Protein backbone atom coordinates (compact mmCIF):
# COMPACT_ATOMS: atom_id res chain seq x y z
CA UNK A 1 0.00 0.00 0.00
CA UNK A 2 1.11 3.56 -0.52
CA UNK A 3 0.91 6.45 -2.88
CA UNK A 4 2.25 6.63 -6.42
CA UNK A 5 5.31 8.90 -6.22
CA UNK A 6 6.42 8.72 -9.86
CA UNK A 7 5.54 6.84 -13.04
CA UNK A 8 8.43 5.57 -15.17
CA UNK A 9 6.35 3.90 -17.90
CA UNK A 10 3.34 6.03 -18.79
CA UNK A 11 1.80 4.14 -21.71
CA UNK A 12 1.44 0.56 -22.76
CA UNK A 13 4.43 -1.10 -24.32
CA UNK A 14 6.56 -4.18 -24.00
CA UNK A 15 8.88 -3.95 -21.00
CA UNK A 16 11.54 -6.29 -19.73
CA UNK A 17 11.30 -8.24 -16.51
CA UNK A 18 12.37 -6.19 -13.51
CA UNK A 19 11.99 -2.85 -15.33
CA UNK A 20 10.72 0.00 -13.19
CA UNK A 21 7.10 0.89 -13.89
CA UNK A 22 6.37 3.21 -10.98
CA UNK A 23 7.58 4.20 -7.54
CA UNK A 24 5.19 3.72 -4.63
CA UNK A 25 5.88 5.20 -1.21
CA UNK A 26 4.48 6.68 1.97
CA UNK A 27 4.96 10.48 1.94
CA UNK A 28 4.41 10.58 5.70
CA UNK A 29 7.39 8.27 6.33
CA UNK A 30 10.38 10.33 5.18
CA UNK A 31 14.06 10.07 5.95
CA UNK A 32 16.89 12.24 4.72
CA UNK A 33 19.99 10.73 3.13
CA UNK A 34 22.80 13.28 3.08
CA UNK A 35 26.22 12.93 1.50
CA UNK A 36 29.18 13.96 3.68
CA UNK A 37 32.87 14.00 2.87
CA UNK A 38 34.40 10.90 4.45
CA UNK A 39 36.75 13.16 6.45
CA UNK A 40 33.66 14.74 8.06
CA UNK A 41 31.66 11.52 8.36
CA UNK A 42 34.24 9.95 10.69
CA UNK A 43 33.22 12.58 13.27
CA UNK A 44 29.49 11.72 13.05
CA UNK A 45 27.95 9.21 15.44
CA UNK A 46 24.62 7.45 15.34
CA UNK A 47 22.17 9.30 17.61
CA UNK A 48 23.84 12.69 17.06
CA UNK A 49 21.65 15.78 16.93
CA UNK A 50 21.15 17.16 13.41
CA UNK A 51 19.33 20.01 11.70
CA UNK A 52 17.64 20.10 8.29
CA UNK A 53 18.42 23.54 6.87
CA UNK A 54 17.76 25.56 3.70
CA UNK A 55 14.69 23.53 2.84
CA UNK A 56 12.47 26.49 2.08
CA UNK A 57 12.56 30.25 1.97
CA UNK A 58 12.56 31.73 5.49
CA UNK A 59 11.88 28.36 7.10
CA UNK A 60 13.35 27.51 10.48
CA UNK A 61 15.71 24.51 10.67
CA UNK A 62 14.01 21.21 11.44
CA UNK A 63 15.34 19.14 14.34
CA UNK A 64 16.57 15.69 13.37
CA UNK A 65 18.72 12.81 14.60
CA UNK A 66 21.33 10.66 12.86
CA UNK A 67 20.10 7.08 12.52
CA UNK A 68 22.94 5.60 10.47
CA UNK A 69 26.34 6.44 9.06
CA UNK A 70 26.65 4.00 6.19
CA UNK A 71 29.72 1.76 6.49
CA UNK A 72 30.78 2.10 2.85
CA UNK A 73 31.97 5.23 1.05
CA UNK A 74 31.81 6.06 -2.63
CA UNK A 75 33.70 8.26 -5.06
CA UNK A 76 31.97 11.34 -6.46
CA UNK A 77 33.27 14.06 -8.74
CA UNK A 78 32.52 17.55 -7.39
CA UNK A 79 31.21 20.42 -9.54
CA UNK A 80 34.83 21.61 -9.75
CA UNK A 81 36.01 18.25 -11.08
CA UNK A 82 37.64 17.12 -7.82
CA UNK A 83 37.36 13.46 -6.81
CA UNK A 84 35.83 13.24 -3.33
CA UNK A 85 35.21 10.25 -1.12
CA UNK A 86 31.65 10.53 0.23
CA UNK A 87 29.56 8.69 2.82
CA UNK A 88 25.77 8.61 3.11
CA UNK A 89 24.36 9.64 6.48
CA UNK A 90 20.71 8.75 7.17
CA UNK A 91 18.79 11.26 9.29
CA UNK A 92 15.31 10.95 10.83
CA UNK A 93 13.03 13.83 11.74
CA UNK A 94 12.49 14.63 15.42
CA UNK A 95 9.40 16.44 16.58
CA UNK A 96 5.88 16.79 15.26
CA UNK A 97 5.19 16.00 11.56
CA UNK A 98 3.70 19.48 11.13
CA UNK A 99 7.27 20.86 11.26
CA UNK A 100 8.18 19.09 8.02
CA UNK A 101 4.77 18.41 6.44
CA UNK A 102 5.56 20.36 3.25
CA UNK A 103 8.69 18.31 2.46
CA UNK A 104 8.38 15.39 0.08
CA UNK A 105 10.41 12.71 -1.68
CA UNK A 106 13.40 14.00 -3.65
CA UNK A 107 13.39 17.54 -2.22
CA UNK A 108 16.69 19.36 -1.77
CA UNK A 109 17.77 20.06 1.81
CA UNK A 110 21.03 20.68 3.64
CA UNK A 111 21.97 18.75 6.77
CA UNK A 112 24.10 19.99 9.66
CA UNK A 113 25.19 17.46 12.30
CA UNK A 114 26.45 18.31 15.78
CA UNK A 115 29.77 16.52 16.22
CA UNK A 116 30.94 18.37 19.33
CA UNK A 117 29.51 20.97 21.70
CA UNK A 118 30.23 22.61 25.00
CA UNK A 119 28.65 25.39 27.03
CA UNK A 120 31.85 27.10 28.11
CA UNK A 121 34.14 28.07 25.24
CA UNK A 122 36.11 31.10 24.11
CA UNK A 123 36.08 31.40 20.34
CA UNK A 124 37.19 33.81 17.64
CA UNK A 125 36.19 34.16 14.02
CA UNK A 126 38.57 32.22 11.77
CA UNK A 127 38.99 35.50 9.85
CA UNK A 128 40.87 36.91 12.87
CA UNK A 129 43.53 34.16 12.92
CA UNK A 130 46.97 34.50 11.37
CA UNK A 131 50.16 32.51 11.47
CA UNK A 132 53.06 33.89 13.52
CA UNK A 133 55.93 31.54 12.84
CA UNK A 134 54.70 28.05 13.68
CA UNK A 135 51.83 29.14 15.94
CA UNK A 136 48.45 30.82 15.63
CA UNK A 137 47.93 34.41 16.74
CA UNK A 138 45.38 37.22 16.70
CA UNK A 139 45.67 40.96 16.91
CA UNK A 140 43.92 41.72 20.18
CA UNK A 141 42.76 45.32 20.63
CA UNK A 142 43.98 46.79 23.93
CA UNK A 143 43.86 50.51 24.72
CA UNK A 144 43.20 51.35 21.07
CA UNK A 145 46.25 49.47 19.79
CA UNK A 146 46.67 46.16 18.00
CA UNK A 147 48.59 43.71 20.13
CA UNK A 148 49.90 40.52 18.50
CA UNK A 149 48.78 37.75 20.84
CA UNK A 150 49.69 34.06 20.42
CA UNK A 151 46.70 31.73 20.86
CA UNK A 152 46.29 27.98 21.11
CA UNK A 153 43.47 26.82 18.87
CA UNK A 154 41.30 23.75 19.42
CA UNK A 155 38.34 22.77 17.28
CA UNK A 156 37.11 24.89 14.40
CA UNK A 157 34.27 24.70 11.91
CA UNK A 158 35.37 27.07 9.17
CA UNK A 159 33.61 30.06 10.74
CA UNK A 160 34.84 30.13 14.34
CA UNK A 161 37.73 28.53 16.20
CA UNK A 162 37.92 27.44 19.82
CA UNK A 163 40.60 29.30 21.79
CA UNK A 164 42.19 27.06 24.42
CA UNK A 165 44.56 29.75 25.70
CA UNK A 166 45.83 33.22 24.84
CA UNK A 167 42.82 35.51 25.14
CA UNK A 168 39.86 35.82 27.48
CA UNK A 169 36.13 35.81 26.75
CA UNK A 170 34.98 39.20 25.46
CA UNK A 171 38.35 40.27 24.02
CA UNK A 172 38.23 42.44 20.90
CA UNK A 173 40.22 41.15 17.94
CA UNK A 174 40.98 42.50 14.47
CA UNK A 175 39.19 40.75 11.61
CA UNK A 176 41.10 40.20 8.35
CA UNK A 177 44.41 41.62 9.58
CA UNK A 178 46.39 42.85 6.58
CA UNK A 179 50.15 42.69 6.09
CA UNK A 180 50.51 46.37 6.98
CA UNK A 181 49.10 45.76 10.48
CA UNK A 182 51.85 45.43 13.07
CA UNK A 183 52.13 45.06 16.82
CA UNK A 184 51.38 48.38 18.56
CA UNK A 185 49.63 50.10 15.62
CA UNK A 186 46.69 52.30 16.63
CA UNK A 187 43.32 50.89 15.51
CA UNK A 188 39.74 52.11 15.76
CA UNK A 189 36.52 50.16 15.96
CA UNK A 190 34.59 50.34 12.69
CA UNK A 191 30.82 49.91 12.62
CA UNK A 192 29.60 47.31 10.12
Overview of this structure, please?
The chain is mainly β and 192 residues long. 2% of the residues lie in helices and 42% in strands. The chain contains one helix and 13 strands, in the order βββαββββββββββ. The strands form three sheets. Strands 3, 4, 5, 6, 7 and 8 form a six-stranded antiparallel β-sheet that branches. A hairpin with a 2-residue loop joins β10 and β11 (135-142). The radius of gyration is 24 Å and the shape is elongated. The model has no long low-confidence stretch (mean pLDDT 91).
In terms of topology, how is this protein built?
Layout: E1 3-7, E2 22-25, E3 32-37, H1 38-41, E4 49-53, E5 62-69, E6 74-77, E7 83-93, E8 110-113, E9 122-125, E10 130-132, E11 135-142, E12 145-156, E13 160-165
Antiparallel strand pairs: 1-2, 3-7, 4-5, 4-8, 5-7, 6-7, 9-13, 10-11, 11-12, 12-13
